[in-house]
Amino acid sequence: MDADLKPKILCLDDESDNLDALERIFRKKFTVLKATSAKAAFEMLDNSPDIGVIVSDQRMPVITGVEFLQKSIVSHPNTTRILLTGYTDISSVIEAVNKGEIYRYLTKPWDPVDLLNTVSQGYEKYVLQSELKNKNLELQNALEELKSLDKVKNQFMILINHELKTPLTAVLSFAGLLKETSMTEEQNLFTDRILKSADKLKNIVDDVLLIVKGEVGMIPVKVSLVKTDWFTHHISPEVAQSLKDKNQTLKFNSNLETIQVDSRLTQMAFNRALHNATKFGLAGSEIVILVHTEPGHQAVLSISNKGPKISEQLIEKIMKPFQMDENIMNHSVGLGLGLSICNTLLKSQNAYLRVQNLNDGVMVSFKFRN
Asked: Model pTM?
């Protein structure tokens, strides 16, 4: 092996014969740096930050091996330290372990095989610690990047709130004022289309803002006991109109009188999921709403409709924000945010959304964990 490619170890002993003996043991596997004094050893440490193992004798004229190894921690904290001692003074050994962060201590005369194995294991420890340090640094950098992304998300929400909502409010306000004036039939038509498009854009902005808020944990949650039939009594006008237009009926069953949820967030998710059920369910069909318990969950609220099934690929897509697919649930336009928003609203209160196919339709479930 090329000497430049071999890992480095440092051997310190005031006896040059001992150093030569150590070099003969290690030279096939390591580049051996030899020092007969602590001063020379410190100079080598200063010039070689990549030394993996230090092997030091305990008895030396100016400084003990324990003292040297202790001082070496400052410049080489991850390096493995091994102490060689010619006597078995237990107090010295304890001092070495406590102060010098010694990996192993070996007594003289050493066994060459044991010594080589010990140093090899010590170098592996050094490599693992170095890798761990690098991984921790990468994790720290990743954490800082995530914090930076959170700041970007917050700035994005400010941008949406101000830079988009402000001109939208102006468009809606002036178009509304224009409707109050005397206009031709064609002008009325144009104004209605402006109002409809601006209102649709406002809804999209609100939806995007809600998802971003959910991702950064900024949706306020207020949990309370809510009667399970409360949600069916507060259906949005849009859902009520859709039920009427398609001649659909609701069937409600519950074996729970109350559930502990955020009523506002759950109602928002419920209306969105129910609107999906009415929109894609068969005309004249029954939509079933069921509230029950199952292991690991305090409550499960499900909405089932009869109609076309959804492929597993599409189920995965519609659970993600900002997916555009013309085949999703026969929907030809839109951002596909409906069920993503449901999931966002549920995640904020320790719950999640599940979409699954039934024999004759689709079931969307809100699963509230204990």
From this structure: 0.51
